[in-house]
TrEMBL record:
Sequence ranges of Basic residues compositional bias: 537-559
Annotated source species: Gossypium australe
Keyword flag Transcription: no
Segments for region (Disordered): 518-569
Domain TOD1/MUCI70 glycosyltransferase-like positions: 196-509
Protein name: Inner membrane protein oxaA
InterPro entries given in the database record: TOD1_MUCI70 (IPR006852), TOD1_MUCI70_glycTrfase_dom (IPR048354)
Source species, domain of life: Eukaryota
Transmembrane segments: 66-86
Keywords: Membrane, Transmembrane, Transmembrane helix
Amino acid sequence: MNGGSLGLRTGSYGLLQNINGAIAGGGISKSLSNVRKSSTKMLSGIREKERPLPNAWYRYIGCRRFSMLLLIAFALLVFALGSFVVNKDSTSPNVLQRIGTLGIVPYVNGGHHEASQILGEKDKKKDENRFQIPAFKGASVLPFHHPCTNFTFPPPPPPTRRRLGPRSCPVCYLPVDQAIASMPSSSSASPVLHNLTYVLNENPIKSEPHGGSDFGGYPSLKQRNDSFDIKESMAVHCGFVKGSKPGHGTGFDFEESDLAELQQFHDIIVASAIFGNYDVIQQPQNISEEAKKNIPFYMFVDEETEAFMKNRSILSSSKRVGLWRIVVIYNVPYSDARRNGKVPKLLLHRIFPNVRYSIWLDGKLQLVVDPYQVLERFLWRQNANFAISRHYRRFDVFVEAEANKAAGKYDNSSIDEQVDFYKNEGLTPYSEAKLPITSDVPEGCVLIKEHIPITNLFTCLWFNEVDRFTSRDQLSFAIVRDKIMTKVDWSINMFLDCERRNFVIQSYHRDLLEQMPPPVPAAVRRPPALPNTRGKTPGKRIPRRGRDRRSGSRRHRKAAASNRDSNFF
């Protein structure tokens, strides 16, 4: 409709321009050149212009059928042109949709985005022509019959209706049965690296000034650098350096019954964790019966969180809370609850050695879309094996570091030390030179992963950075990703944060929830009381006559009908 209306406006302007051109060219202006001539001469000049028309032309114009056919033909022409314009607009390759990063910013944030510092307004047209690229290297082209082939983001709301801050945006998911049918029958190929093993050391010793832990094994800087030299077979530090197998005398230990269950094979698992009683457990919603039957949901908690859940009668001997299977962790390796949470987040492949796919959720998140649909949308459809959302506002590590310092997320000197170390290794501020990489800063509360050697190596090395430096994993993500990508043809699907907010709902941490006042109950709407006429002496009613009585009753019927309509809606 809009395209058609625009086409009509363009056509009318074009006709006006043609007339003006004809006047300027002298066709009609010859008869109007002398303004001092009388109106009679002007009319005669116009009639002389009309005389060459044959008499048959007047006959056809006067025919009503011919006029109707002419109008129908014109309407069909306008409809065809309008459809062409709309179709062209909907299928034209737009860089803001193709890379899925900077163009959706007004829709996501509703305000100014730091992307304008990199891609200025004056360079938009140039960039649209230059950056015709997919979101990441492994992006696939959907088959023609795929239900989401023609899906595009809706336009952003107008500035007057734009809501500040992050929010969700539409995502096209397949129905659950089709998503299940889309699951690959075999694992993806791991580039270069085919055999990954892990360092064991019963007595790790710290030999260098940088951080680390007994749990991580204190890898030296040389060992760290060697771990980025990707080979067909590798052995790297990846936590759990003590003991015969993860969770058995290694720190971050499990009960024997739990340890046996974690060794079982699963195509897909969903995992989360709460340490230090830091979050309120969130129950997944909209989960299909197939997922409830085939996909286990594991929630890792420490002893402090377990005691709280038992005191509140949340946890019973069944070790289940709703869909979640509770796994208690003993001998946690760190005093910082948030750092303990990085162990299951980044090392799920060590805890679950026989799992194909995993979805990690931070403890504050509630999953509201079926896991099969999430995996199909962000891994299988994209031919990806690792997916994470980018930060909704920041995409530069140096800017992220300053934001962490301003918010008091970690000790400022430790953040400065980490960023300076990466800067000396060659990390630079994000710029368009990094495209098709769209961000250096993830929103790391959701990880979607296929467990293959190259992705397992990535999360191992990412964990080693968290173990060596600060626990702010957003700061170490880019350096690990970039070092691996320089060695092998591999990439990460960094999807929009508004898409992440479509399948998870983010809650507040427990300490903030406890400080909030209880919600105010909604006011109960009661119908208005009828007027009390008891005890009043009714006055003498003056009857209406003729037209006044009929119009009054008609107004009453209209008012009653409008009241019924308003109550219905």
